[in-house]
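Collaboration report, partner site 2.

Our partner group contributed sequences for two proteins of shared interest, and the home lab folded both. The records are reproduced in the order in which they were received, starting with the first partner submission.
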Amino acid sequence: MSWPTRTRTYEQLTAPDVPARLGRQSVLCLPIGSVEQHGPHLPLNTDTVIAERFTERLVERYGEQHDLWVLPALPYGLSLEHAWSAGTVSLDTAALSSLLDTLVGQYIGATGARQLLIVNGHGGNRGVLEALTYELQHSHAIAVCVVHPSSVSTEITDSEPPEIHAGIRETSMMLALAPDAVRLDRIPDDYIPNPCQYEEIDQLVLRRGTTWPWSSGDPAISSLGIIGGDPRRASAATGRSIIASALEDSGDVLARLAHRTANALENPRRTDALHL
């Protein structure tokens, strides 16, 4: 039986479609975002929009080659760095870990798939996702990795201060993916990124030798909940370049994921192989 190639969306399948179309080599693509403040100009679901729509483009490009499937997005993450702001909703580490473990177990059981690609739109999820890849691989006998679209892109954003949250880079991606949701007119006319914040941003957020529980409400590193360049310098063209670069580099990620799975299946007795 031939199947239409235009849809690789899990939730649009019927129950009989699942065993007919998905198997051990299928890659489940799980977008994960957050509900949190993104300055006065971006919606609370910015990270989820970026994760979800990037995943859709990833599947459009590589779906047939790697048998990719879009799962429903997980719209909540770890957002306590934005808890000072109205609108922010955050899980705690235990809740997110438990939720992901349960969801992955359910999807693996329902489909027989043995590959998982998590597409993460929120930087605050990165730490727990790094730890969880080990646990998910061990507990569910799957090959797993996490892609962070903005970070995997090699496109450079010319910005001072550094791009952390709701600045030029993130706003540009939203202008490319969901332009109607961007409200640059809500940024006050007198808004100017504060150069006095640059050193503190570097110390609290970027230094790899230390970890601090920073807040986007801290005036030492943020203005209007923005940590980055003036969002009014953002453009859809810049966003498209970031996304195009991220898609290109994600092809190597998918090839490596497939290689790890194939290697494990061919060498099940190797001590460093996954037990698939």
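Second partner submission, folded after the first:
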Amino acid sequence: MQEHDRAVIAGEPTYGKGVVQSVTALSEDSGLALTTAQYFTPSGRSLQRPLPGTALATPGRELDPASNSSHFSTDDGRPLMPGGSITPDVRIPSRTLDPWVTFLNQTGIFTNFASDYLALHGRANRSFEADAAMLEDFKEFVGREGVRTPEDYWESDQGYLRLRIKVELHNLVFGLSSGEEVETKGDPQVQKAASLFSQIPEILKGPGTSR
């Protein structure tokens, strides 16, 4: 899609896994993984990231000696990175979570809070939004669970906390698909990607071409 100028790829570079291994079982619960194939894009780029000290130190050239070009482009002439992963046309970093909310996500405390909220207040509607008073209730709930709330993190995490509470309420009341929809709509990476639609023709425009 990218190389034929049919789509704008937005997000972060992929990991760079572009080879196929065939695994043969050996004795003592061990095995031998033998690289048997490699993936290439339509232009001939390797998807495999370089692995120094192996035959994949310069992916593509050892396994496909004819593929020794370092210059690649889309059908309309937009330059492409020579390989190692799929590099997006527009880089959009994912949300960065601090250690405190990462810990809260691991404990299941958002689900427990949402469950308690529903027991006290009844069913929430789809337009529910966590307000400042609810955040204070959440802070007290976290404290009762024995979790300290760092003030620096508390101030910067307000938006994310509101989203996580809303997601868990939707999960409990309307089902997981509803919660996933709320979480997706609240993802800044998704929001940024959605804002690119009006710019797609310009992004896909190659040198000297018009759309």
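Feedback sent to the partner group on the second submission included the following. The longest strand covers residues 31-38. The longest helix spans residues 158-174.
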